[in-house]
Amino acid sequence: MTEAIIAVIALLVGIAAGWWLASRPVAMLRTERDTARAEADERRTKLAEAAVEVRALQVGQEERDKAHARQLEELNTRFEALAGRVLEQVQERQKASLKEVLAPVAGTLEKFQERLGEVEKARQEAYGSLKEKLAFVVDGQEKVQSAAAGLVTALRSSGKAAGSWGEQQLVNTLEMAGLRAGIDFSVQTHVAADGGGKRPDAIINLPGGRQLIIDAKCSLNDYLAGLEAGSDAERLAAMKRHAAAVRGHARGLSEKAYWNEFGAAADFVIMFIPGENFLSAALEHDLALLGWAFDQRILLAGPINLLAIAKTVALNWRQEKLADEAREIGKLGADIYSAIAVMADHLVKMRRNLTETVGNYNDFVGSLERNVLPKARRFADMGVEQGRKPVVQLSAVDVPVRTEQAPELLPSAAALPPAAE
């Protein structure tokens, strides 16, 4: 690269010299040419020397760069070794310090691990127990489903079985409300009538001697057919038949006119349907059913409504019982007051007798001291032996009888009417 620079410089110098020579005479040009050649040779020599020096400088620079690179590499090696030793020392100190810091954490982690093991063991035991219980629940659910299927089959196959189930649901609802069978309500009470005997399913005894008649009606075939229907049209038709069956039961119950056979009965009869879904389905597909039944003096009621009615009756019975007890307490209080009045009368008589007795006693003592004892002392004066037992000294009774303080015992109370014993 240096030789190229020198050649470019020489070319530029030659061009400049040629241009300058062309503008001078030949002699002068030759003289100047020779001078220029000498100067050029001198300059070429200097340039060669400069090139040699530059090359020497380049070689020296390369050697210095290599030496510098070796020094850097050596310094890097030393620094890495020193840094490694320092890092090892720092790491050792940090490890020791970190062990001290993490010692409590390690203990806590060990306890946590132990507790976690206990929790896991308890979880496995609980999971096993839960698995057993779930198996038991599944088995019970299967039994319930089987029993429900059997119940549905029995209710469908036999109207008597459906009726018995409805009557049992009626009794369960009344007992759930707190009414007692045989006391607050009776079942299957037979009453003779002109057209034959009548037997309502239940009669609730109301306070005041009134009665509430309840008859259970259970019609499930059409309702179950609606649930199992394959299309909306079939379901609608089955539900309409179900509503018509409920209306028919209400009409038949109205024709029995229980309110005429039971003189103390209310002027309406409750028709119990043992399922809110059965009643709601009938009311949904026969909107006028509820009002029509009430016009027939029939009150349609599911378990919830009947439970509310029975709860109200039970509450009335409790209020009636409280009223009876209050009346009994009042009567007992009057009896006690009469007995106290009789005792006060006896007390007055006893005080009067006691005062009279004390007066008689004092008179007796006075008569003894004035009349009897002076005469008896004359026997001693006449030398008559007095006996071994001396005469007891008697004194008058000076303790007054306590005066009555209660207003009922004062003389003003005599104006009150006398109480009979």
Beta fraction:
5-15%
What series of H and E elements makes up the topology? Answer: HHHEEEHHHEHHEH
Q: Strand tally, please?
A: 5
What is the average per-residue confidence, as pLDDT, rounded to a whole number? 75
User: Which structural class fits the helix and strand makeup?
Assistant: mainly alpha
Distance separating the two termini:
157 Å
Kindly state the percentage of residues in helix. over 70%
Strands ordered across the widest β-sheet:
1-2-3-4-5
Rounded Rg: 66 Å
Provide the low-confidence segments as ranges.
Answer: 413-421
Name the quaternary structure.
single chain
Shape: elongated
Question: Count the helices. How many?
Answer: 9
Largest sheet: 5 strands, mixed
Overview of the molecule:
The chain has 421 residues and is mainly alpha-helical. Among the domains are: 161-322; 328-383 and 394-415. It has helices spanning 2-21, 26-157, 159-176, 221-227, 232-256, 258-261, 276-285, 289-295, 303-381, and strands at residues 185-187, 202-205, 211-216, 265-272, 298-301. The chain has a five-stranded mixed beta sheet with strand order 1-2-3-4-5. Helix 5 packs across helix 7 (276-285). The longest helix has 132 residues, at 26-157.
